[in-house]
Amino acid sequence: MRKKNNGGAVAGLFGRLNIVWRASQFFYFCYNNFMKSGKKFLILGSLVLGILAICLGVKTSKENQGLAGRAVEPVKVIEERPLKFAVMADIHSDIENLQRALLKAKEDRVDFVILAGDLTPLGKKEELLEVKNILDKSGLKYFVIPGNHDLWASQKFKTNIFQEVFGQDFQSFKIAEFQNGREEIKFILINNGGDGGIETGERVWLNKELLECPAITCLVFMHMPLNHPTSLHIMGENNPEIASAAGEWVKLLVASQVKEVFSGHLHFSSSYEIDGLKTTVVGAITAERNFQSPKFLEVWEEEGKLAKKEIFVAD
After folding, report:
1. pTM as predicted
2. Residues in Cβ contact with 152 at an 8 Å cutoff, skipping those fewer than 6 apart
């Protein structure tokens, strides 16, 4: 049982006595200054003002007591909107266009950016650090995988410069914010930019990552597309063995019910479906060797489907 606290009642009593005392002093002042001078008509107004002062003082006191110890809660504005992300590729150290693209993505309120490789011409450490510095300053959350150009220096010097700068070169994460009736969406970022395509360790990891895709929405991102209706610039373009492996990955992704694959590499945007695998190739950010205007892709959920919009850097 809670003990009764009389402290508040005592404090309230002294407060009221103090108001009465001040009121009596006010009345005496009125009498002394107005009655003796013969200005009797002012006494009524003084009394009215005094009564009003007492009433206002009591009301204010009660209001202050009600607010004491209670923080005023700010108005909470809850905004419901679908998750939106951007996919960029083939920057090739075009820093000016990269900055423009990131600014447009930020203005469009994307939740994060996925960069699908070829950030640099040669993958030198200073090139990768320059791009990372721009990404860090953008204020946007981002995820990066390497392209074939980003791995040239690493393969030449038998090291992994990309990992030194950006950390893991393949990864996955989940977001539970798509409003399409399914609780989670999984983003799988693959490194297939090297000469060996998808290497052994990554293959083991990828097989495990795909196991839950029949139960949730999975989107896969890579630099080189696994197939294309007209271009030969795909994974394994110079290696028949790697090209054959790419065909097997297509079958596995389809069997795992992957919703869509996003890639770069071609410097030419397109969207197609071959052998049951839906693929979107995003345009290039760089202005050099670009068969289209520099652009990137914004993606969001709309009525249970993926909606896409190409954003032109120069607009």
Report:
1. 0.74
2. 122, 123
